[in-house]
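Moderator note: this is an archived Q&A kept for reference. The question asked for a predicted structure of one protein chain; the sequence and the answer are reproduced below.
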Amino acid sequence: MTIERLSIELTRACTKGCAFCYNASGPGGSGSWTVEGVVEFARDCADHGLQALSLGGGEPMEFAGLYAILRALDGRIFRSLTTHGLHLDGELQRLVDARPDKVHVSVHFPDREAELRRVLRQVLALGAAGIPSGVNLLVSESTLLAARAAWLTLRAGGLSPGQILLLPRRGVDSPTPAQLARVAGGERFQSVTCLLACGPSPRFVSVDAAGDVGWCSYTTTRAPLLTRDHAGLLRALDGLGLRFCGGKLPLAPRAAAG
């Protein structure tokens, strides 16, 4: 098995502290990763076929070593991060200097005009600085109309459908695939690979801030990463199940709860 894409939650610290956060990140949150630990782990996995590393949280820009990680892995592996953007205006040049391959900025509340406009401005600024970027637009069943209006605002602001990821809320208030498609108004859109069926991908793995491994970022079925290297990753995945994170999405036959 070759893991091509790896997501690491650097920390569960996040000043935004959304009540619906799937991993309970918030002010005072922490994690077990160090700069050296992330870099060595990613390099060893890259030696075994890993192609892309996604850095998240919590809020990765509240992890003190974020820029050091990005610089250390520059040219070795595709490096992306997902941020809520609240620190981005003051840190834009430092982030640009660290040369990430892509940055995703999240809109958690599509009904909040100020958040939407800020994220649009930041994504355009990143693009102007030469950093490919896009918006992760969180969609709940209760915010479908606001999400549709946000889609139109982002499109009118110059973003292509390929720069907007429609992220269905999981657990409660989850939209159906058809509802998510209506947000895009008939345009082709991007979403998560589990949109139609829950099941493990043989190419993607998530590791949380405590160092526990899962087949996706949302599942509660996890195993500890006893050694932070490629061999440890494979050991953690051996026999690991996948528990559905909730909502209206049916389980695929291959994804029985584990």
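Archived answer notes: Helices lie at 35-47, 66-72, 88-97, 113-128, 144-156, 177-183, 230-237.
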